[in-house]
Design brief:
2 copies of one chain form a homodimer. The first copy, chain A, has 17 helices and 19 strands. By secondary structure, chain A is of the alpha/beta class. Chain A has 3 domains: 90 residues, Orthogonal Bundle (Arc Repressor Mutant, subunit A); 146 residues, Aspartate Aminotransferase, domain 1, CATH 3.90.1150.10; 248 residues, Aspartate Aminotransferase, domain 2 (3-Layer(aba) Sandwich). In chain A, the strands form 5 sheets. An 8-stranded mixed sheet of chain A has the order 6-13-12-11-10-7-8-9, with helices on both faces. Chain A has a 4-stranded antiparallel sheet with strand order 14-15-18-17. A 3-stranded antiparallel sheet of chain A has the order 1-3-2. Chain A starts with 17 loop residues before the first helix and ends in a 7-residue tail after the last strand. Chains A and B meet through helix 1, helix 5, helix 6, helix 8 and helix 9 of A and helix 1, helix 5, helix 6, helix 8 and helix 9 of B.
């Protein structure tokens, strides 16, 4: 709960520094019970204004209280008095005391779990799951992969099984540089780093650039895996909305007006953006707006991290050049992988960027896990070299395009009036906005009872979650299931809308049971 | 250079807090040029004693100066005035200013490079390289691996190529739990996490447990990859020496007397230890001393991270139960992989530990790279299930044992008197101590001219490097090369000893040229 007022009495004339006075009084308030675990305390800026002291003084006091384990800050939520159990975290462990080790007290950062755990409803195996943004495994070219793995082990097995270079397996780097060239990016070998996938690329970028408190401009909503990394890096996520076509905006994608304001008002360390078929909204930033974003980045001298993972899944319309391809100032670091177009079980991705950034990331990669698995790298290289990737991608685009069309027809036909959705030209999902007042979390409960699943929008927001949004992933379902799923979904939404109009028993419904899944929400 | 005295005049009676006075005066000294980039400043404890103020006051001032980019601390080396170029790191970037982006100014931590870059001499391809602690690729069972990869892709290809569980591929976890059971560790599925190898296991453990400033008890010398991680986590590495058999100690391995003193005098967060065939010394801790170490850990309630990567490479003598197998208090987290006994190009390792630790590591793993490559996991599982690992390991042990024997005979015969070496019973290397006054770095220069390479001991120390030590890796060389290499090495050492006795031209020799290698020093 919020406390409107904390009784603090600082004495500027005292010998005791103000920060120490503040720290000691706050500590006393906790010990006396005036401040209780869970209580929210004012932001340092706010308290500094109230007390008419310098913000650094408050920040210093807070830093000490935090390192004592008395308070804890959550990105985007505020600073709170900590549970007593965790206060013991930073005091010396009781020696000779009996009882087993308390592991919780040893973890570096209890907040990590907060950022890391994204709870997901349990998925019954027979459900129609619009949950996923992963490629459908029934279409995996398993025999082709097998033939590639076989060939590379036969031809270069010793090299593959030996310890390798931290920047990546040479033959894979070569074919990727060719692909990049075709996509308008003339990169050298020293500008390309192979990683274990986009998730690791983001993790390395966070290690390379971000300190606690740094500002990062992020789309809101965004990919939960990116938010996990940013949360555990304890940075300030500065939101810019994502325009979707549903609202008949001038353009879709990152809201540049907001982005510019954020850049003007904050010291921003990085811009993280997915210009093509953004996850979860499916929005794509047009070329002219990409140019503007690049100009903003150049003006404020802030690097852009471009997540390019969905870009090859363009199902219709003309491709737009990537930010990296348009970048004339060396400001863009592009992260990418074939996980969305081929098979995510092989953990391979890459980063392209300025040489000195790539060299820094390479050192961090080496310290993180030496190098990426070489059987996966060699197999993928062979898969590309033989033209199998191109062939597979063409097939997937044909199939996914058809699924998208079926989905659009079904939404048109089966979703009640007042439900809006984004028009997407690629990727793996559409974004649905229910009439105001409906809660996608509650909807999921009823849909699940009837065998249909989706991801409520709130999993993707780090600020101001819109409870009436949801993501429908269409790539993993065949056309029949898409139609059947939409029929059910339409009925459930209609029923919820009727209840809502009757002022119905909305609040009697139990919250959906959530379980930690061992598979990430992607 | 060291400055014996810094002119500081604090006024305890001032309204300005002492820490702010200290900070401002230090800043002024830098700006006036009294303190210059590269100057070393006293440790906070030392300065606090000199100025008769509390250490926290000095630490607070230093923290602020550091975040301003004026000073920089290096683990084990001290705190220094920073180069002016890097001072700009933390001031807002000049807007509208011309010129390209200064990436260096954006990196989160310049010290990272320091911990991450371990420079190694360039390796001529025709040299006899006693450099490596990796298995020799000529002995890789490539055809067996190929047949396993083939079989698993045929049988479970769709599952392998699909996104997987963050805790690991089920079939691999099963065979590993069987192996662990045989080794005396009765672990459940929830106590086992698959990683990309021991390097990643260490990285995850650092993320889970370590905050800047935490104390970690580490063997000195130790595996450089572990030191890289600890350095970039900015922890205090608290050294305990490693006894080797050469000095006719009561026992070999971690010095328990020192370890106990370190535990008594410091708040230690973790103990990191390699009880079997420690890299680089090859030392193995006997069973009785393992028991004592476990008792110490229980007494001080400090978890032990046991690096078990070399343990299966026992070439003679009886195996000693692992710390994890002896652990009755749930204090040990064991990290392991087959990279030393099979093939490191497949990046797979694992951690076994208490369930709540493994769950925390799993969340961090998921945020780091979703999960480990599944083709590698499935292939390894099949390799184990078919008995191929056991068969391969037997063969490697036979071959390495013979190589070790040849090495020992060659050292006996060709190394001059005064050179000592550790007696090892397994692993991949022996540790050599030259007569005092000889420098292994200089020796390497001459040895390299004659086509023989090794790693000077200083790469493995984080404190008090012993310049007269070196590591000879024997596993990667055939018997003939071992003999030839030792003949040359003996001659070079003898020649250096003679020069030394003559007070020779030691200082006219150029330092060996070092280059960053894209392959990690392991």
């Amino acid at each position: 709960m919020n406390r409107p007022f904390i009784p603090l009495h600082l004495q500027p004339e005292s010998e005791i520094p103000l920060y120490a006075q503040l720290r000691d009084q706050m500590r006393a308030l906790v010990h006396s019970g005036e401040l209780e675990p869970g209580d929210r305390i004012p932001a340092s800026r706010e308290l500094a204004t109230q007390l008419r002291i310098h913000r650094t003084t408050v920040a210093t006091a807070y830093a000490e209280l935090e390192s004592e384990g008395l308070i804890v800050g959550y990105v985007g939520r505020g600073t709170f008095i900590r549970e007593p159990a965790t206060q013991r975290q930073f005091s010396p462990p009781p020696r000779e005391a009996s009882g087993p080790l308390r592991w919780e007290a040893l973890f570096a950062d209890e907040r990590a779990g907060d950022g890391l755990t994204r709870l997901l409803p349990e998925v019954p195996s027979d459900a129609i799951g619009f949950i996923s943004a992963k490629p459908t495994e029934d279409l995996f070219p398993v025999d082709d992969v097998r033939s590639c793995a076989n060939a590379v082990l036969k031809r270069e097995g010793k090299k593959i099984l030996q310890l390798g270079a931290s920047d990546g397996y040479g033959p894979l780097k070569e074919v990727l540089l060719d692909i990049l060239r075709v996509e308008g990016i003339a990169a050298r070998d020293s500008q390309l780093l192979i990683t274990d996938g986009c998730q690791q690329s983001l993790d390395l970028l966070a290690k390379a650039f971000l300190r606690p408190g740094d500002g990062v401009l992020v789309e809101n909503p965004a990919y939960p895996g990116a938010l996990s990394i940013l949360t555990s890096a304890r940075v300030r996520c500065l939101p810019a909305g994502v325009e979707t076509s549903q609202a008949r905006q001038r353009y879709s994608g990152l809201d540049l007006k907001v982005a510019e304001a954020v850049l003007e008002q904050n010291r921003v360390k990085l811009i993280l953006v997915t210009p093509d078929f953004q996850n979860p909204t499916g929005a794509t930033l047009p070329a002219a707006e990409r140019q503007k974003l690049l100009e903003l980045a150049a003006r404020f001298k802030v690097p852009i991290v471009e997540d390019h993972i969905y870009a090859r899944l363009r199902l219709r319309g003309n491709p737009v050049a990537s930010l990296k391809a348009m970048d004339r100032n060396g400001l863009v670091i592009q992260i990418d992988s074939f996980s969305k177009v081929a098979f995510p079980g092989l953990r391979v991705g890459w980063c392209v960027g300025p040489e000195r950034v790539i060299e820094r990331l390479r050192l961090l990669k080496q310290a993180s896990d030496l190098h990426t698995d070489q059987l996966a790298q060699a197999t993928l290289a062979e898969f590309v070299r033989r033209g199998m990737l191109e062939q597979h991608l063409k097939r997937m685009i044909r199939i996914y395009r058809r699924r998208l069309e079926v989905l659009e027809k079904s939404m048109e036909r089966h979703l009640p009036g007042g439900v809006e959705w984004s028009r997407v030209d690629g990727g793996m999902s559409v974004w649905i906005t229910l009439p105001a007042g409906l809660d996608a979390g509650e909807l999921l409960l009823h849909a699940r009872e009837r065998g249909v699943l989706f991801v409520p929008g709130r999993y993707f927001y780090f600020q101001e979650p819109q409870p009436n949004t949801l993501r429908l992933g269409f790539a993993g379902l065949d056309e029949q299931d898409i139609v059947r799923g939409l029929v059910t979904l339409g009925q459930v939404i209609e029923s919820e809308m009727r209840k809502k109009q009757r002022g119905g028993a909305r609040h009697t419904i139990e919250k959906p049971e959530e379980t930690r899944q061992r598979v990430a929400l992607i």
